[in-house]
Amino acid sequence: MRNRIIMSMLTGATVLVSTLLGAAPARSATPDPPATATADAAVAATAPTATVAGAALDVPAEFGSDWHDPVTAAPPVIRPEHAKSCEVTVAKAQFRDFTPYKGTYAPPAGCGKRWSKVVLRLDGKVKGRQYDRLGHLHIGGVEVFRTSTPQPSPDGIAWSVEKDVTRYSDTLRTAQPVEMLIGNVVDDTYTGVLDVKVTLTFYAGRPTAKAAATVPDRVLTLQDGNTLTTPRNSERVVAEVYATGSGGGCEEYWYLTVPETAPYSCTAHDGPYREVRIEVDGQLAGIAAPFPTVWTGGWSNPFLWYVVPGPRAFDIQPIRYDLTPFAGLLNDGRPRRVEVSVVGVPEGQSGWSTPVNVLVWQDEKSAHVTGSLTEVRAGDLANSSTYTPGTEHRLDTEGSHRLTVTGHVDTSHGRVTTTVRRSLAHTSVHTWSDGENPDALDGRWSDDETVTVDGRGPARTTRTQRSYTMDGTTTLGAGDRLRTVLTLGDRATVTETYGGRRTAWSRLDDSYTGDATYTAFVPRDQRHAVGTTRERYRLYGTGGCYDRSLVSVQGVLTEDRRAC
């Protein structure tokens, strides 16, 4: 059993899809959860002290019963200055099981019905033993927030997450039912109760013209699971899908799956290539690469994530699809079937959640906007995984896909043609030895999207180049010392042009590195864990600059540096 520790930790928990990341204990000699994924391991404390903002800090030789509260390097939401604000509590609950919190939301009385910004904030605390959990918040059926939770220290931790939810203003203008769920298991062994409060802060006033253009007139959900009826004067339509591979089984680690012919714990007929696609009435309308999220129990090593989680773990971002080429078709007043699927998931296997919101911008001067879908051109899906047996097993995977969709709408301000081009690519090298020890992956994903809007005046083009990286190894060594070394990257470049001339640009580089080691198969107080984690989040462009770096050693935050 010890020779297969890595994947037994990955697959030993059985859970409910989309609410739980690891409900049952993983297979281990200790009741404390060893974690449900892989990370960066083994770093002894080389210096007894460190400094943050000039203050000396004592760094312990190994993890203890308490550590710094979780923190991320991502920027806080920028709030309007000198604007009147109103705060509303949306949910307040202690999650012990799979009972959702249900309540009622009412708009703030003192800040009107138009807001320059709306900011969601989650404050949570937990102590004892617990796995990482996946949660969501629905207001009026609209998913406004998806998150996962940190794993607690015995003494307890607190954390918070902020998100700009101004784009859901249409939903928030009227009273709505609220449902929130963070599926959890609490018993004599897993004692962590998730104590959570979610608030919305509204800032009175109108947003800037540029910000207002990002706020839709309507926010819709699919009826009966897959039916959409849009207003007949829709001139722009965007779907957002909160796609997460989770549930404690192999789809939580889809990037590590191999074909059935290879000797590995997690298999999928077509290997690790995944593609999240959306269809309208059976017609392919959008493709996207899923983000390879690593949850806070990931890569079999929770000591990687106790203080600094992986990118997006606390604020799971939706995939966005511009469906405007289909607006003319959607505007005929008939219900249309909208379906989301994930390419590569073995038939009949659960593990993916794909809730859909539809954002609609309307032509206020038209009762009915007509139009036509003029082109859907999909390239062949390329997906090959080559297994090479040996002392070191190896799987080389390459995948790619292209899609171009064009359509026009005849609006009150003339004909507008929208063309969406999207190109996906994935390469990875997965190596493992017998017993899956060591187990290593070097993966790259790219998602390149160009949206061109051509109407009266010069064409406007927005190009978004997304790149995700994962490079890690987990090894079980002498004395059952389990070490994980991992680097993650979340990068994106956005360029806007008007008539071929660049008008705005931005570049994101969110990089994580971790190295942590602990003794497996023993109680928590005998693990003698050490670990160093780093995150640097850089965002710069025509909108300014943000640059923050974090370092933690043995649970102590030893660096918090801002460069801009």
Please give the number of β-strands. Answer: 33
Q: Total number of helical segments?
A: 4
Structural class: mainly beta
Mean pLDDT, nearest integer? 90
Kindly report how far apart the N and C termini lie. Answer: 50 Å
- Low-pLDDT ranges: 1-48
Q: Indicate the percent of residues in helices.
A: under 10%
Q: State the major sheet.
A: 11 strands, antiparallel
Radius of gyration equals: 24 Å
Strand content: over 45%
Shape: globular
Can you summarize this structure?
The chain is mostly beta strands and about 575 residues long. The chain has helices at about 5-10, 170, 210, 325-330, and strands at about 35-40, 50, 55-60, 85-95, 100-105, 115-125, 135-140, 140-150, 155-165, 175-180, 195-205, 220, 225-230, 235-240, 245, 275-280, 285-290, 300, 320, 335-345, 350-355, 355-360, 370-380, 380-390, 390-410, 415-435, 440-455, 460-475, 480-500, 500-520, 530-540, 545-555, 555-560.
